[in-house]
Prior knowledge:
The complex is a heterodimer. Chain A is an all-alpha fold. Helices cover 76% and strands 0% of the residues of chain A. In chain A, helix 1 crosses helix 4 and helix 3 packs antiparallel against helix 4 (36-65). Chain B has a domain at 5-97 and 161-214: P-loop containing nucleotide triphosphate hydrolases (Rossmann fold), CATH 3.40.50. In chain B, the strands form 2 sheets. A 5-stranded parallel sheet of chain B has the order 6-7-8-3-9, with helices on both faces. In chain B, helix 3 (102-108) runs parallel beside helix 5 and helix 4 crosses helix 5. The chains are: A mainly alpha, B alpha/beta. Chain A binds chain B through residues 22-28, 30-36, 42-43, 46-47, 121-122, 124-125, 127-129, and chain B through 48, 51-53, 56-57, 59-60, 81-89, 91, 93, 95, 97-100, 103-104, 107-109, 111, 116, 119-120, 123, 136, 155-156, 159, 161, 165.
Amino acid sequence: MVWHGGFACDHGDLESVYQASDPRLQAVTLTLGRHPLQYLLLVKWPLLKRALWSTWAIAFAVSVAQYLPTLYIGAGRFVTVTTEAVAQATAGQRGLMSAYAALQTILPLMAFAVAVSLGRPRRFMKGLP
Amino acid sequence: MSVGLHVSVDRLGTVNKPLLKALSWSVPPGAVCTLMGPSGVGKSSLLGAIAGTLSIVADGLTPLIFEGSVFLDGERLDTRPAHERGIGLVTQDPLLFPHLTVAENLAFAMNRHTSKAERAQQVKDALQAANLPAMSQADPSQLSGGERARIALMRALLAKPRALLLDEPFSKLDDSLRQHIREWFFRQVTQRGIPAILVTHDPADIADHSRVIQLNHA
Lengths: 129, 218
């Protein structure tokens, strides 16, 4: 699963979100006596969590759906859900092929569920009243 | 040792175009000094220079350069980073952190060595002072403009600033609320005995006995 997400995650999707964060929040954070590193950990990155996890989920879904890039870049050495699904389809094993097809639907669905759950920035702030 | 805030501006502006030149003034503890002037004269930039956030707020624009000095209670601050200056900033838009509740926004300003019980008590007291005791767990987006302004000021005060900069904090409030919040702001500053600089376009915002500095283009 991690292979799929890491394989296709494009930092270009996140760059605009990262650059668009309001610089005035940084100014306010610093004037509250917080270190610049705390601005990153407690403000900027938590606000980016949703975008980060959404990008990961989309990248994962795309990765799962892509057969040829997986095959070419992996040079046939890596077995993925996609390559197995295609292999089973050509082998004519309908039962197994259906299972892989279902897996191709369920895995991206799980990735989006994870993204929705972990993308909530509030989780970073444990310990505050 | 001189007490209060002393600001001396030799030059503030871009490399080619100065916004402000040869300006110097002091604000005693508990007093509010008002800066007025036309748009684009450099009022907010001047606050940024005093707070040490000039390079952050001017992000993406032509960089502004500040030449001068900032002293607070005799200590030179302009050579220190923003988070070590002890100067609070309240902006025109009451910028609350959108991912935190009201209580978390207030607690964010406190020293991290403060115990949890003490932190909770201070948040409770701050909400009481802001007349918003039931808003502890509210999301910032649920607050009205006036409520956000009060929370933003309380948050700035909870950081125990040694000076406070107010950049048009009343400009987005309706008239009925404006007078009330303005008086409340000034009362907080006086009670805490900290020097404050207020930027405004509205003469009605000027505190009683406040020194007014009219800024003009350099």
